[in-house]
Amino acid sequence: MVSAMGGHGHGPPYEVPPYTQFCHKGIPQLEQLEKALCEKGLKDPWIRNEAWRYHPGFGTKWQRANKTFFRGLPLGLGLAILTVGLERVLGGSDGGHGHGHDGH
Fold it and tell me: Which structural domain, as residue segments, surrounds residue 68?
């Protein structure tokens, strides 16, 4: 039986942390945002939802972007070089173009 969360009866693959775990107090960027909103007579009741972004375990914005875009680069580049090298050493196919074999 498939559950509503998309699993196959095993439940979600992760545990959702309680919202109380994240608090914007002590995070300078979010405290500045709260102060700026307060000066305009506004309040963001959901500001705590941004607290996870500043948790040390998640890294900086640039570290997260680097991990997202370049995570598999060393492995992919290494495998591409290995593939090209093996094709050259083992005399891989010429792609079916027949260059140099028909006297032209």
Answer: 61-91
